[in-house]
Amino acid sequence: MEVGELLAIADFFVLCSAANPRQMDVIAEEVEQAASAAGYPATRREGELDSGWVVRDFGEVVVHVFTEDQRRVYDL
To answer: In Å, what is the CA distance from 40 to each residue of 35, 45, 72?
Structure first.
């Protein structure tokens, strides 16, 4: 989703859902590896698997990976 006009911290947010914390971790790691290979290393990593939400910050793009339950909590 494009957020550049609303937020100064990023131009885009990518929201992903995972069935469980393990899948959430795999998604976040795969995204981070692919972005790094393309020349966009993560500048920040936030969140814990048991929280149901992890974030990978790539500068202009921030990737949020939620468990399905946690995403429903935030209605995203």
So the answer is: 5, 14, 29
Question: How confident is the model at residue 49, as a pLDDT?
Answer: 85
What CATH number was assigned to the domain covering residues 12-65? 3.30.460.10
Terminal-residue alpha carbon distance, the chain: 11
How do residues 19-65 score in pLDDT, each as one tens digit?
999 999 999 999 999 999 999 999 999 998 889 999 999 999 999 99
Output the six-digit token pair for 48: 């814990």
H or E segment and range at residue 18: strand 12-18
Q: Check if the beta carbon of residue 76 is closer than 8 Å to that of residue 26.
A: no
